[in-house]
Amino acid sequence: MDINTDNQNKRHCAFCLKEIQGNEIKRCGKCQARAYCSRECQVDDWSGKGQNHKLWCDERVCEEDIDWDIRIAEGKGLGLFAKRDIPRYTKILVDKGYHSRKEVPQPLLESLMPHSGSLAAKWDFNNMYSSEGGENLGVRVSRLNHDCNNNATFKYIPDLKVFIIVSIVDIAKDQEITIQYQSFNDVSKDAKYRNVRLMILNEKWGIKCQADCVCRDKAVRLRIEKAHQVDKVIPSLLKFAENDIKAKLKVIDDNIEVIQELGGCPISLIRPYYDGFQIAILNQKTVPLSTKYIDKLIEYSEIINSKHSEEHKTFLKYKENPRNHRNYCLKNI
Ligand SMILES: C[S@@+](CC[C@H](N)C(=O)[O-])C[C@H]1O[C@@H](n2cnc3c(N)ncnc32)[C@H](O)[C@@H]1O
């Protein structure tokens, strides 16, 4: 990745987030991009106390003040903005996920919205829930604003205890980097969820989607409904999958196509590609068909789970030897 490290005379310490200037700035000796205010902060960030930079140093994850910065986002408070053109599928930010209010350094939690709220209110307002990791809060993640037409997505990786933010389209210099707090185009979520999301966005964060917002578009909603119907069928395909595998893979391919049409990102494509792999390996004759699914699964998982995650390592094992998977050739037809 092309990283411009020239003339960065104002930075933020990557561990304590303090603003630093000139001689105060100490850079990671290896990547020369990550900045610290002190040796102590560098040591803490290298380990799991911070981002675990020893894992990410070679990957050239984007850095604050070089690739993006925090500025006023009109009508929204602060937000993250691109300082250069950021191509699709770039790792914009890897942020330590704090698992409880008490873990978050107090001044950092204090700086977050709602400005007049208690620490408990700030925790409730900014933590992100995931079924794999429960509630976690990323201090830099908490500065990302919502947009239904988002250009980035986020995932919490439980074994690495970090959030990862990835661009899902090319982002131009000075464009705001946005995520969806509650997504409208996740077809794996049921209709009830999609119907209450506008209420949650409004009641929890005071965000009102305008009438012309993409999430209110009738044609888009109908397409999501159709995609949801296909998605609902998939668990049953996995249950009785020793025969008619090609027909079942056609359902998966249709599901993938429609998710792509809806602007689905790696995070929503991982599941159908995994389903395709699981179905293809149920019958020895169709095992070769699994390659296309596992290859894409690995590609997307590296983008959003990262190659350091246990999940990614498991997918690599399945590629090397599909027999590692419990579904492998239960029945030879
Ligand atoms: C998690 S914070 C995001 C960072 C925040 N802007 C800040 O200054 O720290 C969520 C709050 O940001 C603002 N916000 C986020 N997305 C918005 C949007 N699309 N429109 C208006 N306000 C938004 C709302 O005040 C929301 O309650």
Automatic annotation (TrEMBL):
Gene3D superfamilies from the UniProt entry: 6.10.140.2220, SET domain (2.170.270.10)
Keywords attached to this entry: Metal-binding, Zinc, Zinc-finger
Record GO terms (molecular function): zinc ion binding
Keyword Metal-binding attached: yes
UniProt xrefs under PROSITE patterns: SET, ZF_MYND_2
Keyword check for Cytoplasm: no
MYND-type domain mapped to chain residues: 13-57
Domain named SET: residues: 59-182
InterPro entries in UniProt: SET_dom, SET_dom_sf, SET_domain_protein, Znf_MYND
Function: Probable methyltransferase.
Protein name: MYND-type domain-containing protein
Native organism: Polysphondylium violaceum
